[in-house]
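Issue: ligand-bound run for guanosine-5'-diphosphate-alpha-D-mannose - logging full I/O for the record.

Environment: standard queue, default settings, no custom constraints.

Inputs:
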Amino acid sequence: MQNSNVKILATEILSDNWYTLRKITYEYQKKDGTLQTQSREAYDRGNGATILLYNREQKTVILTRQFRLPTFVNGNETGMLIEACAGLLDKDNPEDCIRRETEEETGYKVTAVRKIFEAYMSPGSVTEILYFFVAAYSKAMKVSEGGGLDHEEENIEVLEIGFEEALKMIGTGEIKDGKTIMLLQHIRLQGIL
Ligand SMILES: Nc1nc2c(ncn2[C@@H]2O[C@H](COP(=O)(O)OP(=O)(O)O[C@H]3O[C@H](CO)[C@@H](O)[C@H](O)[C@@H]3O)[C@@H](O)[C@H]2O)c(=O)[nH]1
Ligand SMILES: [Mg+2]
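Outputs:
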């Protein structure tokens, strides 16, 4: 935090049940030089990594489907969401994290992963920065069922979908997850599939 126009005055923890919600009060120097005191809530659930697995011969991608409670209480009738594989970093670096998460959730053991960019996904309220990766996959890399970790209560379905179909699913609203849309569009924009 190096912006000399901002001075943190107070940090209050509103909730630290599973992740941490803080209310931060700060002094902000406006362009005209005057000082303004503001406060904002920031939800800190750590940082994350996500990956799109693609197969050039088959022109397919690997996606997941799982129940996402926050979407269920906000308009997603079944609560089921189709997403690229993703996970929180814990103490890992993003690359190790995404390799581990890929194997746990999809059952594919990928070797060469490529970082493409990083993005704040909800900058007005959530601190998280998300690291984006892509990797080629093949049948030979499938080492387990995937599906996520039982002790984390993950019930993840693994989907292998034609790339063109996945792109269409953005238009139909069947794919409604930001990171997944960004990854699919990247694959198209870069001509990877
Ligand atoms: N008990 C309990 N479990 C929780 C809670 N919040 C999350 N979990 C569980 O903690 C686990 C976290 O799984 P990960 O695979 O590491 O993370 P993720 O939820 O898939 O998050 C990924 O996708 C998010 C949504 O796009 C990203 O925001 C995030 O960065 C990451 O990439 C999941 O099993 C989730 O259900 C909670 O409040 N209580
Ligand atoms: Mg996950």
